[in-house]
Design goal:
seven-stranded mixed sheet; 22% strand; alpha/beta; seven-stranded parallel sheet; single chain
């Protein structure tokens, strides 16, 4: 241990992926962790006493959208929500308004906006244009993209296009050369369109029809297509959000039987929300893929505990409130949920309600997303040399209030409004500096930095 004092020591019960260290401490020098242990802390210029609270690695949200509805101006507000939610690193999707991130020049522009406006650190996905975009893949990887994102379903021909099979196959071959992961929005377009047309023709536009027109089969059909292409190309192909247990089973089967680089993540809503919640919340419960049955939620939990889930994310998409209101047609509101500020308290609560340890949160909401996106060990860990990114949770009885969301006014809505929580975010530390004190975002726009992918190693979660 160095004789000179550390810049800061943070006290609390340290939550690591493999255990909890009660009465622990984290020592910080500059922006990185320089020591950790239990018992009497070493000397430091400052002490942050969170005794009795849980200190976890700052969460890494591996799937969120800052700019799908408002453009890059959304980075500032969404990153405030992240800071208040203990999320110290966001991995932002590329489907931005008015231009998706389809080449190195656009990527560089977005990096500049991140470094000028974000409150937390941010890694970035890249994508391709609907046609002719494969040649830009190498440049995006060189620019520091952590991963790629493509879709089997089209929301917008420019912003969020469906990539046809020949183009996707060519893209997978090129992405395989970079060593990066390619996440896929996995819904079968032909099936969803036909079912939606039939529902509208029958006058069925009530909330439950969002789930009925996007059935589990729409996901598993898309999963099989992309995983077969993973076998063919050697690309690491990743389900960006599986609402069904079968998606994780298929990813595991292709890994085990075909030697494919296949994986899939669970968004937190698929660990707790059901079709009944869709009916209750109407447009404010609409996301793609949709909520499933209570029985399917249990099956997804089983796959998580069996180690088949890559990591847990939010798919945060802060549509303006007006765009979420249901007025008799569930197909009209935007698809997506807010989730960044509720992520940490909700994940802790879901684990506690099942008698599961918070170590799973450190593993699936920090370390593993950082590993899958090539950001580890800089991000996602409490270990010497890692960035001093920390989440402090105070345990107790709390209620999530959407009015407290740190974002623009029309983004202060949540499907979890009024939900009982067993923890709250008491503090968030980014690179050794407190950016949330439990009531106020202390970070300023530009506190956050762009985090490029640190290496090209492939991680499939099977260590």
């Amino acid at each position: 241990m160095p004789a000179s004092p550390f810049d800061r020591v943070i006290l609390g019960d340290l939550v690591l992926p493999d255990g909890v260290l009660p009465g622990g401490w984290v020592a910080i020098r500059g922006e990185v962790i320089a020591g950790l242990g239990q018992g009497a802390p070493p000397p430091a210029a400052a002490i942050a006493d969170h005794t009795g609270m849980l200190v976890l690695p700052g969460l890494v949200d591996g799937h969120m959208h800052t700019s799908s509805s408002t453009g890059w101006a959304g980075i500032e507000g969404a990153s405030m929500s992240a800071a208040a939610g203990g999320v110290t690193t966001c991995v932002d999707m590329p489907y931005d308004v008015p231009r998706p991130v389809t080449d190195a020049a656009i990527f560089a522009e977005k990096v500049a906006v991140v470094e000028a406006t974000s409150h937390v650190d941010m890694a970035l996905y890249g994508t391709i244009t609907k046609a002719g975009g494969v040649d830009a893949i190498a440049g995006l990887a060189e620019a520091g993209a952590c991963s790629f994102k493509l879709s089997t379903y089209e929301y917008d021909a420019v912003r969020f296009p469906r990539i046809d099979h020949p183009t996707m196959l060519a893209a997978f071959r090129e992405i395989a050369r970079t060593g990066l992961m390619c996440g896929i929005h996995n819904e079968d377009q032909e099936l969803v369109i036909k079912l939606t047309e039939q529902a509208k023709a029958a006058g069925r536009t009530d909330p439950i029809m969002h789930a009925r027109t996007r059935p589990p089969l729409a996901e598993s059909m898309a999963d099989l297509e992309i995983f077969e292409m993973a076998v063919e190309t050697g690309c690491h192909v990743h389900i960006a959000h599986s609402s069904i247990a079968r998606g994780f089973d298929l990813a595991a089967a292709f890994r085990q039987m075909e030697g494919a680089k296949t994986s899939g993540e669970a968004c937190i809503q698929y660990l707790c929300m059901t079709e009944e919640d869709l009916v209750r919340l109407e447009g404010f419960g609409k996301c793609n893929p949709p909520f499933r049955t209570a029985e399917e939620v249990e099956r997804v939990w089983q796959r998580l505990l069996a180690g088949k889930v890559a990591y847990v994310s939010t798919d945060h998409a802060p549509w303006p409130r007006e765009r979420k209101v249901y007025r008799g047609d569930i197909f009209a509101p935007g698809a997506g949920l807010t989730g960044l500020q509720s992520f940490a308290p909700l994940m802790y609560t879901l684990l506690a309600e099942r008698g599961l340890p918070p170590t799973l949160m450190a593993r699936y909401c920090a370390e593993r997303p950082a590993r899958f996106h090539g950001l580890f060990p800089k991000k996602g860990a409490i270990r010497i040399g890692s960035d001093a990114d920390l989440l402090v949770l105070e345990r107790g009885r709390f209620t999530f209030d959407e009015a407290a969301i740190q974002d623009r006014e029309d983004a202060r809505w949540s499907p979890y409004h009024g939900r009982a929580m067993q923890a709250r975010v008491a503090a968030t530390w980014l690179r050794g500096t407190c950016i949330w004190d439990g009531t106020t975002v202390l970070a300023r726009p530009g506190t956050g930095r762009f985090v490029p992918r640190q290496h090209r190693d492939t991680y499939l979660g099977e260590d």
